[in-house]
Amino acid sequence: MTRHNAALTLDNVRFSFGQTEMLFNLQLAAGETGVIVGPSGSGKSTMLNLIAGFETPKSGHILIGGEAIDTAPPSDRPVTMVFQENNLFAHLDVFSNIGLGRSPALKLTEQDKAAIRTAIDRVELTGKEHRKPEELSGGERQRVAIARALVRDKPVLLLDEAFASLGPALRQQMLDLIAALQRETGITILMVTHTPEDALRFSSTVFFLKDGEIKEQGDANIMLSASGPQAIRDYMGTTEHKSS
Ligand code: ADP
Ligand code: MG
């Protein structure tokens, strides 16, 4: 796999669906992990969609590896995105769904096929190559999506609650897999999670989103600790309420 080296920058990126104005400023160094937490509706998915190109900013710039990618169509961006669900094509089997990460027309070289087999092995789906998505559990389908991300081999990986459908053990396993991938390839990761303790699995920066803006950010170990910002403790429900 390629060695990557691409910082991610959101520079005054403004967006709105009509009501709440969103404004995103974010800086991740190459090879760093950012973990986005925040209440439902705060704009977490929108932020990832802007980076991936599924939404267009009203103003501001998105840079990857120092290059503005604002106007590039999603397919041309050096980005892989894994959603919470519906990542797969129902009519294609596991092998082909992963193969799409390598070639959208499924014109696969021997080298591509070898990479796909390795990815299948890493997500422990060996033997299930020819199953269709409907013949897999929700967790297995997510592992197919992650395997596709592995073979795409892009410098920025966006995960939007990608592990939410997995049980605790599998979720840890997938987080470990992503962390190993990062050590091997230097990818930059930005992940949304509703289980903030996921952030502690990596050396990571936590971004706390509320009302379409990043309100707090910092090292995960500090941000998620008992002495972290009040807003995050309130969100996590870890604020101690003293009885009078
Ligand atoms: P989160 O992922 O943090 O739960 P989202 O980014 O999905 O939040 O949504 C942010 C806000 O934008 C919410 O108020 C949501 O209702 C609104 N929103 C999301 N998608 C759309 C859409 N396609 N059209 C209109 N409003 C949307
Ligand atoms: Mg969301």
Automatic annotation (TrEMBL):
Alphabetical list of InterPro entries matching this protein: AAA+_ATPase, ABC_SmlMolc_Importer, ABC_transporter-like_ATP-bd, ABC_transporter-like_CS, P-loop_NTPase
ABC transporter domain segment(s): 8-236
The keyword Signal is annotated on this UniProt entry: no
Similarity-based family: Belongs to the ABC transporter superfamily.
PROSITE patterns, alphabetized: ABC_TRANSPORTER_1, ABC_TRANSPORTER_2
Gene Ontology CC annotations of this record: plasma membrane
Compartment list: Cell inner membrane
Keywords from the named record: ATP-binding, Cell inner membrane, Cell membrane, Membrane, Nucleotide-binding, Translocase, Transport
GO MF terms held by the record: ATP binding; ATP hydrolysis activity
SUPFAM superfamilies cross-referenced by the UniProt entry: P-loop containing nucleoside triphosphate hydrolases (SSF52540)
Pfam family, one: ABC_tran
Chief localisation class: membrane
SMART domains recorded: AAA (SM00382)
UniProt protein name: Thiamine transport system ATP-binding protein
TM spans (from-to): none
Domain of life of the source: Bacteria
